[in-house]
Design brief:
- The chain is of the alpha+beta class.
- Helix 2 runs antiparallel to helix 5.
- The strands form two sheets. Strands 2-3-4 form a three-stranded antiparallel β-sheet. A two-stranded antiparallel sheet has the order 1-5.
- The chain is built from five helices and five strands, in the order E-H-E-E-E-H-H-H-H-E.
- A hairpin with a 5-residue loop joins strand 2 and strand 3.
- The protein is globular, with a radius of gyration of 16 Å.
């Protein structure tokens, strides 16, 4: 029987507590997982967790991912111009090869010397902490 388009596919993890998250990420680290981990709640919220050699690289998704990213960049990089026009121009520049635009912009700013490695790391860590907290609040993920 094929899954219906509205039902999530994958393995359901009930009560995806911090302990279960730690065990999952420890197993992925041990196996040096490269790729994208996609988690979906019963309510349809989706989170994407990017991993390289078993390490968390970036996360996005959930409710209001752009607001979350904007809030953290404003907090740790207050000197950047995050107006709609400035962001639109930056995104248009890289549109063809963007997989994760939030992460890519941070890397571009770091490479251009607009932000430090510490600032980009702070933004990434803050975003991932918020997302892991949100995932923990979901009673079940797929």
């Amino acid at each position: 029987m094929a899954p219906s388009p509205s039902s999530p596919t994958g393995v359901a993890i009930r009560q995806f507590t911090t302990d279960k998250q730690v065990k999952l990420f420890a197993a992925l680290k041990k196996n040096q997982f490269n790729g994208l981990l996609k988690l979906t709640s019963k309510r349809g919220q989706e989170w994407l967790i990017y991993m390289y050699w078993g390490r968390l690289v970036y996360a996005t998704g959930g409710r209001h991912p752009v607001r979350r990213w904007h809030r953290q960049v404003s907090r740790y990089c207050p000197h950047l111009d995050l107006s709609d026009n400035a962001l639109r121009a930056m995104l248009t520049k890289h549109k063809a090869n963007m997989v994760c635009w939030e992460y890519q912009l941070l890397r571009d700013w770091e490479t251009a010397g607009k932000i430090t490695r510490q600032q980009s790391s702070q933004v990434i860590l803050a975003v991932m902490m918020e997302i892991l907290f949100d995932i923990t609040q979901a009673s079940e993920v797929f």
